[in-house]
């Protein structure tokens, strides 16, 4: 069986049938449990997700009813073998007994860890394969169509931040493999999806510049400048201003030296995508 949380919530049975829980609270309960597989999730946390900070007195009993209906759904839909108990009571709450490869979010994180390991070891082809496997799991925003509470909102934000990490890693890997020009369509899609993420803009500006497309590179810089001024009242970072000066002073005939790299990538990169905004309604596909 498989639980897919990246995109619309899906329960895939052992024989490949798709099922989506109809009751929103059951869907949310299963999502919280699936994001902590093989761990006991406290009853208090599940109640917080389903009813917020002011739950009714009957919340604990109603939660037991939701657990009962979830178990019944697993049985009636023949999600997995009849002798396999997926949802069990375990102090201080409940546990979903599924393996990492049975939850798409867990698989995504595993592929991303493997991609980082391969990249640090200099095995860029292997790293590219793993990061593309991770990004291929994205069918849309996490739990799209499911109304979420505060618990799930925080965990969704974490997973979506990991997706941004994966996208950044993919760009660095592909650039290291000399595939900068092939990245241009993806970079254009990324700056549209994440308009406040300066690093993506920097990669696009640099790629256009190194491809000899100076006017487009300067236009891309001007677009970023306008976005930052309008949304935040800021100017582009010092690294990007230096890149603009380099473009203005260059002849446009340089050899391609590689991607744009800030002086201290982990500290100087202004990750402005963390500014609160609506969850994206469209997801760029890669791989």
Automatic annotation (TrEMBL):
Source domain of life? Bacteria
Protein name listed in UniProt: SARP family pathway specific regulatory protein
InterPro entries in the record: AfsR-DnrI-RedD_regulator, BTAD, OmpR/PhoB-type_DNA-bd, Sig_transdc_resp-reg_C-effctor, TPR-like_helical_dom_sf, WH-like_DNA-bd_sf
Please give the family membership noted in the entry: Belongs to the AfsR/DnrI/RedD regulatory family.
- Location of the DNA-binding region in this protein: 1-98
Q: Which UniProt keywords apply?
A: DNA-binding, Transcription, Transcription regulation, Two-component regulatory system
Q: Where is the signal peptide?
A: none
Q: Outline the extent of the OmpR/PhoB-type domain.
A: 1-98
Record region (Disordered)? 254-273
Q: Name one GO biological process term.
A: phosphorelay signal transduction system
Cited CDD domains? BTAD
Which Pfam families does this chain map to? BTAD (PF03704), Trans_reg_C (PF00486)
